[in-house]
Fold these 2 entries.
Entry 1:
Amino acid sequence: MINIVKYFWVLLFVFFGTFSIRAQKTIPQVETLLSQMTLEEKIGQLNLLTPGGGIATGSVVSKNVEDKIKAGKVGGVFGVAGPEKVKQAQDIAIKNSRLKIPLLIGSDIIHGYKTTYPIPLGVSSSWDIALIEKAARLAAKEATADGINWNFSPMVDIARDPRWGRIAEGAGEDPYLGAKIAEAMVKGYQGTDLTQPNTMLACVKHLALYGAPEAGRDYHTVDMGKVKMYNQYLPPYKAAVDAGVATVMTSFNDIDGVPASGNQWLMTHLLREQWGFDGFVVSDYTSVNEMIAHGLGDLQAVSAQAINAGLDMDMVGEGFLTTLKKSVEDGKVTEAQITQACRRILEAKYKLGLFEDPYRYSDAKRPAQDILTKENRSLAKEIATKSFVLLKNHNEVLPLKQTANVALVGPLAHSRNNMLGTWAPTGELKLAVTVLEGLNNNFPNVSISYAKGANITDDPELAKKVNVFGPRVQVSDQSPETLMNEAINLAQASDVVVAVVGEATEMSGEAASRTDISIPESQKKLINALVKTGKPTVLVLMSGRPLTIQEEFDLPVSILQVWHPGVEAGNAIAEVLYGNYNPSGKLTATWPRNIGQIPIYHSAKRTGRPASVTGEFQKFKSNYLDTPNTPLLAFGYGLSYTTFEYSNLTVDKREIKQGEPVEVSVTLKNTGDYDGVEVVQLYLRDVVRSITPPKKQLKGFQKVFLKKGETKKVTITLSPDDLKFYNNNLEFVAEPGIFEVFVGTNSDTQLKTVFDLK
Ligand code: BGC
């Protein structure tokens, strides 16, 4: 009897469950199409292939793609670009496959399409949300002009371990800022109407927690409790979903022991049921197959697990294509499950208007109109200038004077191949402007002499590993001594030294984790030798991650962090070095003093045995024997050529009720000699609550321009949600009690006020 009752409820649930999904979403054209499809054709739509035109990030590249499209075995491809090529691909599907279903054309447009912006970690350092949305909009315009209708971006993985090379690809360590950026990018790519030929499907990735691999090693295990997940790591993915992102990509790692691509809790419970996501989910590159290596069974078993868990599309691995039919026959997967995945993919094609016009993205006139336009290049330059972070300005050497003779040295000073940064497969390397060119272009009257001075690394083995996509590190035929002497001679004959040093582009990015994140030895030697000349020295530091630069920081040098700045690299750097733009970037990931401090981030919790406030070592306190707890450079840190003073921090009410906003105001004065932009940052500390609170958390910011001598009142409004957190039951709540509000120039700010939530 009990069994019959149970069976009845299961049936009822399946019936209404299916009914409610359909009632919510049915698109008649898609339903008609589905009713005509064979099981094999439905499975075909779940298959995403690449003929190998882009970066193949796994060990396989798809074979016989054309035949498979004709046979109705492909739902989308990536690595194909250009209106003509995309038209050919669509032709194969439209003219040869039985049901003439158009293809999705995907691509990784991570920081600009052909007009490459700085790496995303750099872009995030601008804290300029409107600019980030605009950049995504223009990237979509360029990419769609080249036939692409689906972007594998934004990458929103929170990263607190700079050993992990893909920290370069995201917005850093903070969930609040990360969520704002995720939302802006989705809006930028998708626009307001996906049927417009200059908008595209966005794909938020990598769900989930991919940025927290053990030991910072790519693809490694992730182990994290739910409270931390919900509060610290999931907000950017959720923000993308709330912004209407059309697709989601899973991550390579496991979560609670189950790889993301086979994780039902993740894809079904969290993403669809809790967050209400109604688009489709794609795996990462062969991540379904990789579940075999994770130890979850053979290809048929892992593919069945993936689709049953809620994965809709299989990237490159063809596990769905080759095993799902058998799994249906074996009773391991239902046809309804496959139909549902297929429905979601067809709906995405429908949303793009591809059924109406499969050639919507194949307008041969568009590339010339939309790609690498003056407007796009000037945007790339603007973003680059705004992404630079002034880490140190020794003796206020910066901005440089145009009367000074410059010795421009360093292995990255004239290295076109390293300007675009990692994950820029669609960028135009040959157009990238080097620092030498940028200085010469923009300041033709300044006397500039150039010498390489050092190799990026002298280690040929490392060079080989980072040269996978072409020469990034060229170990010179000249000896390191000869290279260095040349640079020192130039330095001695000049008024000021600008040394462009740091990482080659592929020293960060995918599968580019490092256990030593300092400046490579060859360049350290150069820097030290330059400093010994006694000439004022500016380090222009390029990297895809926070570096450990304690030694260089302690030298009498100025340091401008420029990431990998994109196609306009040299022009942007020249503008900032000479003060045409006053740097305003702020770090979005903490810079540790040394590798042993990792993970280190501003919103860490206090312990029961906090270290002394003076930083002095105390036995039986939470501190190190050999290093302070504080980082070298805090989250939010960044200097300007001018100085700012904060005062009069107030809240509009000392007591608030649940659901009420709070207005926080501060007076900001430009006290220096230049006009400038400050990123005013607001941090909140929930003093007492039911689970241990972080020391402080970013909950608001505003970019403010002030002329020299100018004073402004800056107001930031905290919304009721800004006071909330996920408690132990994973309920999103604000608990009564005192909140401390900190406002200032970085996360170390001590300027404080309080309010009381009743
Ligand atoms: C990366 C993804 C990317 C995919 C397709 C994978 O290796 O993890 O971010 O979208 O390749 O290029």
Note: The first strand starts at residue 47 and ends at 49.
Entry 2:
Amino acid sequence: MQISEIIHGDVPSLSFEVFPPKVDSAFESVKDAAGQIAALRPAFMSVTYGAGGGTSRYTLDLAKSLGEEYGVPMLAHLTCVSSTKETVHARIEDMKAAGIENVMALRGDLVPGTENDDRSKWDYRHAVDLVRELKESGTDFCIGGACYPEIHPESTDSREDVKYLKEKVDAGCDFLTTQMFFDNDLFYNFLYRIREAGITVPVVAGIMPITNAGQLDRAIKLSGSFIPRRFKALVDRFGGSADAMKQAGIAYATDQIIDLFANGITNVHVYSMNKPDVAASIKGNLTCILGNKA
Ligand code: FAD
């Protein structure tokens, strides 16, 4: 099922992201954790592609097996900047063969030592190049793109960020998913700016539950997200206790999601970090709000 069919209405939907294992030996345990998340019957699930230098070998395996076993619509991520055209074309063929209908088209970050780290030889410079390739692939993929409520760290300013985002959407993105954010007002402002700029596709809000203090440091390093005072106080107070921080982090993420739904945002994607207990708690906190739909 295409994700655009799931997220187009005004009924709240909750979906989860998982990531493939970084080492081969972890495949079964990751598959098991992702399976427990799929068993929660989310609206859809995404599987990342080699983020942070991890292996991308298992993205499709995981997406295919979760889709087949649990009947959950799957979104497979694909990045392009570290790859040659040949590799990307092979991945697209693999996705077709695996019956993947939904692709998150990303630029990715350059990982030193990968096959194409000589900038002058890059076949792909931006995600928009991959979106165009997917559109020309002969398969009617539903295509997602990434967006950044607090602008992408490489963008000069918000105007430039939105200009290139519009170019990416016009090239064929059917929906956008945001980078994590911890202050909903930043997201509402972003939404206002992109709608003003004529970007009309659905935007899925990405929420990362922070369940330990170390995770927050990594998340900030990765995303540069603003940490509101209220959230910082919570981490300062509970960060030293694993159980307390987990409970507080789940409560904060739940609160963010309820505020989003209350303000008419219909689609929320939770960065589950492969933690079924966290995913289950958040889903459990929202059962009546979500009604029958995940
Ligand atoms: P782009 O859309 O290409 O944007 C990157 C920068 O280039 C921006 O500053 C943009 O304004 C600028 N730009 C875009 N087009 C042009 C142009 N034509 N000319 C000049 N400048 C331009 N990484 C992974 O490795 N694997 C994953 O699975 C993964 N999943 C992600 C999921 C989400 C929801 C998000 C938000 C990010 C994800 N990332 C992932 C991280 C992502 O790869 C990085 O943030 C990367 O730096 C940018 O990717 P992008 O697709 O947004 O790039």
Note: The pocket of flavin-adenine dinucleotide is lined by residues 48-51, 77, 79, 106-109, 126-128, 146, 152, 154-155, 161, 164, 167-168, 177, 179, 206 (CB under 6 Å).
